Amino acid sequence: MSPPFAPGGVTPDFTARQTYLGDWATTQTLALNVRAAWGNKAATGRGATVRHLDFGVYRNHEDLGHITVVTSRPETDDCNHGTASVGCIAATKNSSGVTGIAYDCQFYFYDTGDFDKIVADAQAGDIVSLDIQFGSDGVYFPAIHVKSWWDKIFALSSNRVTVVLAAGNGGLDLSPESGAMHDYGDSGGMLVGACDHVTGRRLSFSNYGHYTSYVCAWGDWSVTTTGYGDLQTVSNERNYTKSFAGTSSATPLVAGALAVLQGYSLTAHQYLIGPYWMRDILGYTGGSQGVEDLIGRRPNVYSALLWLDKNLPS
């Protein structure tokens, strides 16, 4: 079936399709409870900085006008993956297209070969999002499988930078006991698993079981965002999708959620949340459906803000 929105004219408002922004009562899905954070706490990512690593971005996309592109591959390459990820986090809030979870954050994009630039640029309190995996032929691992990447993630974490990274789409048990992956210890980063949007349970392809598998989000072809063109097909600058998926969609959803938490903590409480305490907050407030499947908790943004208000000085 052709996308329902034809070239030309003004892009419709697709935000009603972004059910991951809502809650169970309004969407009948296990969403991230972002809209309540926006409406009740004015928590929109303001004050937070996100540095995202991905496979290129269409920098002139109509919904991504306020991001900073530090590095990106030529747009003759396929930049849809990165464009979709950026939309989840930082798409502009307006009357058309989609809205990013942390739409008021300071957002910086880096291509996959430029992790060293992130390490050099990142400041304490930043959220770093690594939406990549390593491997081939269906056997995929998170970045911490590679020692040089583990070292850099550890360095960032030691400097109070919160790092989230895709757990990978290999369906693998990543526990040390399984022997599936190199184990260098706790990098301080959090692996992001992929869950079903209705049940909250692990999707079969999502890696799981690592001792840093703290967090999960939607990965079942249900995420509406910028890019690809299966929702609206016009051009790379105006395309939208309704089916972003995998740990690829889960990772930027989590990054956006954590940016809202960090921005709110900094602006409302003048408190910087470090990476290890960020884990604790997710543990106290997140949805538990993925815990028994060893992919961690699903962020509940509004619940986390209420917890911050209760436990931090005003």
What does this protein look like?
- The protein is of the alpha/beta class and 314 residues long.
- It has one domain: 3-Layer(aba) Sandwich (Rossmann fold).
- The chain is 28% helix and 15% strand.
- It has eight helices and eleven strands.
- The protein has a seven-stranded parallel β-sheet with strand order 2-3-1-4-7-8-9, sandwiched between helices. It has a two-stranded antiparallel sheet with strand order 5-6.
- Helix 3 links the parallel strand 2 and strand 3.
- Helix 2 packs across helix 8 and helix 3 runs parallel beside helix 6.
- It starts with 23 loop residues before the first helix and ends with a helix.
Radius of gyration: 18 Å
SSE order: HHEEHEHEEEHEEEEEHHH
Oligomer: single chain
Whole-number mean pLDDT: 97
Give the strand content.
Answer: 15-25%
Tell me the name of the CATH homologous superfamily.
Peptidase S8/S53 domain
